[in-house]
Specification:
Length: 146
């Protein structure tokens, strides 16, 4: 498959815990469910999905850098790094791939420290507070721009 028909899905720290705790905030779907719905949305549009999750910032940066070689765009839920990481922002802008920022919960309805995103002004697409379905929405909106 050519680079133009592949997307990278990145899930950041603690998202491996999806479906195990805080269902009132994040729902009951697991990370495996997230990967499945996102891959299905991509495949429907003729794209293959590669999925990565890590609790380590450097591993996420390496995955983003690798996408430069063989992906057309990135769907990312950076978890808490959204609100803290210049490094992640620099990686995403550095590879010059369009990306969609996804948040399962409505960060604007939560604590003030979740209201700021280091990605807000550089993301091609932002999908916030739509639950796990937001990943599929992000794929569709991102692919529409490719
Ligand atoms: O709403 C989102 O998707 C977030 O990106 C999730 C992050 C949070 O820090 C952001 O403010 C919003 C947290 C991910 C941790 O996910 C867990 C899931 C289940 C149980 C515990 C943590």
């Amino acid at each position: 498959m050519t680079a133009s028909r592949r997307l990278l899905l990145v899930n950041g720290p603690n998202l491996n815990l999806l479906g195990t705790r805080e269902p009132e905030v994040y729902g009951t779907a697991t990370l495996a469910d997230v990967v499945k719905v996102t891959a299905e949305a991509a495949e429907t549009l003729g794209y293959e999905l590669r999925a990565e999750q890590s609790n380590h910032e450097g591993v996420l940066i390496d995955a983003i850098h690798a996408a430069r070689e063989d992906c057309a765009g990135i769907v990312i839920n950076p978890g808490g790094l959204t609100h803290t990481s210049v490094v992640l922002r620099d990686a995403l802008t550095g590879v010059s791939l369009p990306f969609a920022e996804v948040h399962i919960s409505d960060v604007y309805a939560r604590e003030e420290f979740r209201h700021f995103s280091y990605l807000h002004d550089v993301a091609a697409v932002r999908v916030i507070g739509r639950g796990v379905d937001g990943y599929a929405e992000a794929v569709r909106a991102l692919v529409a721009q490719l």
